[in-house]
Amino acid sequence: MGIVILVQLFNLQIVNGAVYRDTSNTKLTRESTIKSVRGSILDCSGNVLVSTDMTFSLDMYKTKVEDSILNNSIALMTGILEQNGDSYNDNFPISINPFEFHFSSEEKLAQWKKDYKIPETASAQEAFYLLRDKYKIDSEDVNEIRRILCIRYEISTKGYSATKSIKIAKEISRESAVQLQENGSKLTRSKCCCRTC
Questions:
Q1: Structural domain span for residue 131
Q2: Which of 70, 90, 109, 117 is most exposed, with minimal Cβ within 10 Å?
Q3: What's the pTM?
């Protein structure tokens, strides 16, 4: 009996350990408390003094996934948001068409290049493509690359973990929330969560 248990334990931990670990990482569940809606407050003649609006936000949690999976998830999320006219966090300091840096001073630009290991003489376009290569973005579409870089830059500046999310967008439309839920199976591995606020 002991030998059977040891063989099964070896099978679970050594032979199939990586498979079960990946499955475990992608099937984590998280409970959040959502406070109930307070309702509207009316005056004595029925006029609304205070009302409650339901809004949705998009959060992302860290998981162990390949860059290609993370980048594809970000491209899908930001594409859905843009399609429905919703905005997402965009603090990426390089614009396209034309390529330009957006820094308040040359010193801040120099420090940013140093922090991201970009050569001092690099142009905005060169820096853009260096970051594309750094984050292993496969797309050739400049707009899609920039959308992915926006979120990857947000992640690198603010950080996130398996328990602490990073907010991708807030006050998104119901259409975006529904489409994100519909594409949940494609986003699950990178732990994207559409939350009601």
A1: 50-196
A2: 117
A3: 0.70
